[in-house]
Amino acid sequence: MVTASFNLFPGEAESRREVVWTLKKVGDAWKISDIAAPKSDWKLSQFDCTTPQQGGCGMLTGRIVGSSVAALCIVVPASALAGTPTEAVMAFYDHVGLELDPAERGRFVDPARAVFDGNERLHKAGEGDCLDPNMPLDNVETGADEIGKTLKSLETVKGDQAKVTVAFVAAGAPHRLQWQLRKVGDAWKVADILSITGEWALSQYHCE
Q1: Residue 16 contacts residue 66 (beta carbons within 8 Å)
Q2: Domain span(s) for CATH 3.10.450.50 in the chain
Q3: Is the peptide bond before 85 cis (omega within 30 degrees of 0)?
Q4: Contact at 8 Å (CB) between 195 and 201?
């Protein structure tokens, strides 16, 4: 067995991860027979890829990229990502500006939803906006393509509460945000956004 250890965020013990590779020697060559991530509680051998499934039985994710790991692809079942806090957050990086779309307000709960609703009322009344632009990008005017090259995320879940810490580099400067989510039914919804770098929180805005 070969165990690969790394930190998603350098210097943060809670972001430490391990991937265990099991190999068998066939002739003169060592070949991989299984891959497991103990902390994430999955094994490649547990995936059922014998029957067709929507989206396939697994996927590759390259979101874990940083100074600790130059490039890492982890095989996980497609169903494992569906409805997770990280998926809820990444939607805002896959579609920049999504948070300002009134049709997408169902992705939020209070206090975040109340702030966006207040901002929408001000906008419709012709009184401008009370929110800074590009809040998921830490109010930096940059393209999603640039951020996507350095985007990293770390998820922690406790019951129906979750936090997703997102880190990226924009215009040569590091940025880090924490998304706080609450589970409503089967869906994870954003309750607040905090910028660790810019020292602001969405819930602190008063859009009245």
Answers
A1: no
A2: 85-204
A3: no
A4: yes
Alpha-carbon distance of 193 to 148, in angstroms, equals 19
Domain 85-204 grouped into CATH 3.40.50.300 = no
In degrees and rounded to multiples of 5, residue 103 shows phi and psi of -70, -15
Q: Rounded to 5 degrees, what are φ and ψ at 92?
A: -80, -15
**Cβ–Cβ < 8 Å for 15, 8:** yes
DSSP 199: T
- Listing DSSP states for 179-201 in one string gives EEEEEETTEEEEEEEEETTTTEE
Q: What is the pLDDT along the chain (208 residues), one digit of tens a residue?
A: 877 766 655 556 666 677 887 888 787 678 788 888 776 667 787 766 655 444 445 433 333 333 333 333 333 333 333 489 999 999 999 998 899 999 999 999 999 999 999 999 998 998 888 998 789 999 988 776 778 889 999 999 999 999 999 999 988 899 999 999 999 999 999 999 999 999 999 999 988 8
pTM over 0.85: no
Please give the Cα distance from 106 to 118 (Å, whole number): 15
* Placement of tokens 């998926």 in the chain: 87
**Element spanning 32, H or E:** strand 29-37
